[in-house]
Amino acid sequence: MALRTLATRKTLGGLGLGFQQQLRGLQTFSLPDLPYDYGALEPAISGEIMQLHHQKHHQTYITNYNKALEQLHDAMAKGDSPTVVKLQSAIKFNGGGHINHSIFWKNLAPVREGGGEPPKGSLGSAIDTHYGSLESLIQKINAEGAALQGSGWVWLAVDKELKRLVIETTANQDPLVTKGPSLAPLLGIDVWEHAYYLQYKNVRPDYLKNVWKVMNWKYASEVFEKECP
Ligand SMILES: [Fe+2]
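The line above is the sequence of Superoxide dismutase; the predicted structure tokens follow.
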């Protein structure tokens, strides 16, 4: 995940805030580049959605995450425990938003670059063993994603201890790790309205049906092989 010093983000000149933050060793996060053009996932996901989602939504999580971390650093330096505790929800929400979206961009790929091509190798075999077929797995994930109330994510993960695939959902921007430390995300689908509303309006199931056309199973397979050798 992209890290850089706060000094590069905020330099107020002379011995300004940026310099002080650099001295304190504070680090901040920055927006990762998309591995494809905004319009490259069309027609499954419009370029307009991708651009807004990446440049506005993901960037906002990062901005607020950095702000909360800066406030946390200051509160800890002052021994201000109420503020330290108060900041935890902002860190979870915005830090989770950064973690989840950073995975999501890698979960997708243009069709010409293999998006939508079914998984091969050990992940393909594991899916057949646990779910019967890829189609059956997709149906289950889509059903969970459609049923998720409000905003959140639906995940295909591997439980590294049990060595098996699991489908999970998380609310809001909770990252998958909140559901268990042994879970490693292979694929996460953003089911917040901002991920589909401009194109699919309120019909989340249509978005869920089409997102598989640009799913990057190659990425999921690589993670699976690394986490579950
Ligand atoms: Fe999102």
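Note on the example: The two ends are 23 Å apart (CA to CA). The chain is about 50% helix and 15% strand.
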